[in-house]
């Protein structure tokens, strides 16, 4: 058999690439597995999570409170813009 120069180095770099690719795939699998298993628990008013019905009510209250706060912020900013506009007249 004929030996080619640098053949051994190419072989070890191929093994290195395969090992590094396997490690990267393992880390991606591990992170995705943990990401999709993560569960977010939102405590309801009593502090205990009692079921899906109470959590949906809790989410609805969060949405409505957020909507009200955004409307308040918009109203305050519009009032301040009107005051600035009146001051410029």
What percentage of amino acids are in beta strands?
under 5%
Shape: elongated
Which structural class do you get from the secondary structure elements? mainly alpha
The assembly state of the depicted protein chains is single chain
- C-alpha Rg (nearest Å): 30 Å
Strand count? 0
**Low-confidence residue ranges:** none
Overall helicity: over 70%
Q: Biggest sheet: strands, sense, closure?
A: none
| Separation, N- and C-terminal Cα atoms | 95 Å
Q: Into how many domains do the coordinates divide?
A: 2
SSE succession: HH
Task: Compute the number of helices.
Answer: 2
The overall average pLDDT, rounded, is: 78
Describe this protein's structure.
This protein is mostly helical and 89 residues long. It folds into 2 domains: 7-37; 51-89. It has 2 helices and no strands. It starts with 6 loop residues before the first helix and ends with a helix. The relative contact order is 0.05.
Summarize the structure.
By secondary structure, the protein is an all-alpha fold. It has helices spanning 7-37, 52-88.
